[in-house]
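Mods, move this if it's the wrong board.
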Amino acid sequence: MLQFQAPMIPKYLATLALTVSLVTFAASSLQFATRSQVLAGKAVDEALQIEFTIDADSSHTYKISPRIKQFLEDHISFYTEGPARVVSAKVEIAPKDVSWTENHSTITSTGAAMAARLQWDTPADSANGAHGKIYLNFPEVPGLERKAPTFHSGRYQIDNKGRYVIREVTTYRDAFLLSFARFVFALAAGVPIGILLHTIFWGFVLKGEKRSRVAEFPPQGSGLPRTFYPNPIAEWTIWLIVFGIGAFPASLLALFTVLDGFMSTTFIWVIYIIMASTAAIALLGAYFTGKALLTVRVDTNGISYARGRGDLQWLNAAWSDIFLFKQKSRTYRGSTTYWIELEFNDKRKKLKIGQSLLGYPALRDILKSVFTAKK
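Not the wrong board. Structure tokens:
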């Protein structure tokens, strides 16, 4: 695929692996990893903050009165599944106006902020890789039966049974296994963020690589015959642009979960699916870009052109074979793209020459002079 730039691939992969590893090592020491992958028998203190409303209808919410506040503080509880055990929990409710975004509009309505401090642990004899969850139980408020809360901020996930998951826990009995597990878990954040940072860095690397590649082209003067080569890093440019675009939303998703301190298995799969899909699209984009690359050779008798890299299959056309020469442009958001179109006498074949061709202005001037003289 990247045949012309094959020597760059080991360098790219090595620097990418280093960047992802460094970001992952840093992420593995943060709360979202250390409180999800734990040493069996060790107690963990957890602080939880969630803003919520209790909806009366689609446009109104109930005011959290002192009665509702006291009821929720007394009855909100936490329960577990698997090896995790809640040791103690204290909940405080503070009535407040809660804001959230819906259909690109900011909505503010009466609600409350819940602050919970809980301590949980796992049995010392928990098996390696034993998986558990800690759930938040939000009770029905007397007088507001069948009125479920709507959470607007905070770390949680709603599972397929409608339960609020506030922590997923996996236990390990060995410090080495724990460190390795945290690294693997943190890869979900390290991969997209590392790729995004590496893409920015590699953009500067490509600038230097382009200069060195252009310097390797056979020397030629300003007269004819003359060969105009394609961008030597065109495939890499497409790869980086597409890969970087895909890494950006995945990085934001990872960053938000890291800052919240909770990354669910659902988010992990979403991140990996985004990055795998992006890699496939970027690979196809680079492949077809390489196949479409155009090399143009001009002499006194006519023009020759070939697509791709490696062994080129040249097509030749005398000047008399060209029926029409056009210069075209398109402007989008203040950026103008230029290209040349040559239409052959059979009126079925057209050759489009884009401005990314090295020496494009000189080729444009040569063709302009040829077709001006023909007139």
